[in-house]
């Protein structure tokens, strides 16, 4: 938001803009102003001071409440950024003569943070075309670990109940009706409300199951790209939502949907799809899939409301257009997209995983998932994707029984995702005709198109790729040269009828 001119700033903030009130060596102090805070950028540090406000969603009206919120901000953000969030500093003295960390009674408090290069913020990285799938894979690692460690909402609390989930979604429609009185937009919003009501009724049993199984957690709550930064080559989260617990205690699926929609709004459907796939692949929480569209529509309409509020404050055409863009995004997310089922076929090292990833990222609707046999096999046996099982060929987690269990699990996950309206690519060897027929029959049962990705490579290339992968030691695959030799003996090539189902992607 625009920074208030000096005459309109509180005396305390104006005084703290003097470099001499900060640590020796501070040459300049820059003010960043938001709707609810003043942030002073001074040397190596940033000081965040809450505005004395009372709004429907927050209360900073007293010094004690602002101090408590500063403490909460520090505690919550230190869960994932302890090196950025340093402490809460008292401001003493008088408004015209304040002292950061001085003796005496506090007249205000500030959260002290270590500054970082703003060019590393992910929204800026994305704007200059430098945001990559590797960045979002790194974020997925961080987010899944954070969610696993986050506090679980007690069953007796309101958080995560179906009624508590629906209330803010309905608030969006009520507020947008007042903010955007245009009759044409009201018809579109009415259709979205009907969809939201119907989806909520359909998903209510799953919502209850999610709470009972501990999927309502104390999340970040505001996980858009501007609240993430590249530091030392890794994506770090910061600035979580500390002032309203109702907006922070969420189903983890809701948090995933937040970032998913932000990536879509940045025009990055490929990265949005890849991000969802990366998070679910790491967490194994495919039960979240039926909820993702519901939460994504909700998040898109929150954005529409924010844009409409800005329009009311500025009467700018850009904000009106922005609200309509967000409503259109919600409509796209609510609209059904015909799903399809794709499987891969081929020997270890032929490029199945690369082809599956390319297919996933090419989905313009960003509504596809990838299931990897190497990952789900290990999950069945309680192993992390990159963890070595120590199994010999046809032993341990690679026995015929383990193989059958893995393919059955892949079929179950694929069936549920297809039913939820998401396309699926199953990344597995599918060397045997009966395995391929099993998934072809599943596609028929779900009435969806069925295709096969079958990249190929010379045996010498396969051997070299397997050795390279073993040396790197970071992939879920444990294929060895011995495994490849066994596959060469067992593979059943595609039949003529299957060849007609083969997708025409470049071979490897």
Estimate the mean pLDDT confidence.
Answer: 93
Judging by the overall fold, what is the CATH architecture of the largest domain? Alpha-Beta Complex
Helix content: 40-55%
Structural class: alpha+beta
Unreliable runs: none
Most strands sheet: 6 strands, antiparallel
**Share in β-strands:** 5-15%
CATH class of the largest domain: Alpha Beta
Strand tally: 16
Principal-axes shape call: globular
- What's the structural domain tally? 3
Number of helices: 17
How is the quaternary structure best described?
A: single chain
Radius of gyration: 26 Å
> Alpha-carbon distance between the termini?
51 Å
* Biggest sheet, spatial arrangement of strands: 1-2-3-8-6-7
Within the CATH hierarchy, at the fold level, what is the topology of the largest domain? Aminoglycoside 3'-phosphotransferase, Chain: A, domain 2
Would you identify the CATH H-level superfamily of the largest domain?
Aminoglycoside phosphotransferase (APH), C-terminal lobe
Provide a short characterization of the protein structure.
By secondary structure, the protein is an alpha+beta fold. It has 17 helices and 16 strands.
């Amino acid at each position: 938001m625009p920074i208030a001119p000096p005459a309109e700033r509180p005396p305390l903030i104006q005084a703290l803009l003097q470099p001499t009130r900060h640590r020796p060596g501070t040459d300049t102090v820059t003010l960043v102003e938001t709707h609810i805070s003043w942030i002073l950028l001074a040397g190596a540090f940033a000081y965040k001071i809450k505005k004395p406000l009372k709004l429907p969603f927050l209360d900073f009206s007293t010094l004690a409440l602002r101090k408590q919120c500063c403490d909460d901000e520090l505690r919550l953000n230190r869960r994932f950024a302890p090196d950025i969030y340093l402490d809460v500093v008292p401001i003493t003295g008088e408004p015209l003569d304040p002292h950061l960390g001085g003796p005496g009674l506090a007249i205000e408090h500030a959260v002290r943070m270590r500054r970082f290069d703003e060019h590393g913020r992910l929204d800026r990285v994305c704007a200059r075309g430098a945001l990559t799938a590797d960045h979002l894979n790194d974020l997925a690692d961080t987010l899944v670990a954070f969610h696993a460690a986050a506090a679980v909402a007690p069953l007796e609390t309101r958080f995560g109940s179906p009624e508590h989930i629906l209330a803010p979604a309905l608030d969006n429609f009520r507020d947008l009706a007042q903010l955007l009185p245009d009759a044409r937009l009201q018809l579109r919003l009415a259709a979205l409300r009907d969809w939201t009501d119907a989806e909520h009724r359909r998903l209510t049993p799953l919502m209850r199951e999610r709470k009972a199984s501990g999927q309502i957690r104390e999340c970040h709550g505001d996980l858009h790209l501007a609240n993430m930064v590249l530091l030392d080559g890794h994506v770090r989260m910061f600035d979580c939502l500390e002032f309203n617990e109702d907006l922070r205690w969420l189903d983890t699926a809701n948090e995933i949907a937040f970032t998913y929609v932000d990536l879509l709004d940045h025009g990055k459907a490929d990265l949005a799809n890849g991000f969802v796939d990366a998070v679910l692949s790491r967490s194994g929480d495919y039960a979240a899939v039926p909820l993702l569209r519901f939460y994504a529509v909700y998040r898109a309409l929150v954005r529409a409301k924010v844009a409409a509020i800005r329009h009311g404050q500025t009467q700018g055409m850009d904000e009106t257009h922005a609200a309509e863009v967000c409503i259109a995004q919600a409509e796209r997310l609510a609209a059904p997209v015909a799903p399809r089922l794709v499987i891969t076929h081929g020997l270890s090292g032929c490029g199945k995983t690369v082809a599956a990833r390319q297919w996933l990222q090419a989905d313009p609707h960003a509504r596809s998932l990838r299931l990897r046999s190497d990952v789900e096999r290990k999950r069945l046996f309680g192993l992390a994707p990159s963890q070595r099982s120590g199994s010999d060929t046809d032993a341990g987690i690679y026995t015929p029984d383990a193989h059958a269990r893995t393919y059955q699990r892949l079929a179950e996950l694929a069936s549920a995702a297809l039913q939820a309206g998401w396309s699926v690519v199953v990344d597995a060897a599918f060397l045997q005709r009966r395995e391929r027929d099993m998934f072809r029959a599943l596609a028929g049962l779900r009435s969806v198109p069925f295709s096969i990705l079958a990249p190929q490579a010379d045996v010498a290339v396969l051997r070299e790729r397997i050795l390279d992968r073993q040396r790197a030691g970071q992939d879920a695959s444990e294929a060895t040269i011995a495994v490849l030799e066994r596959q060469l003996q067992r593979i059943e090539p595609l039949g003529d009828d299957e060849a007609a189902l083969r997708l025409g992607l470049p071979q490897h």
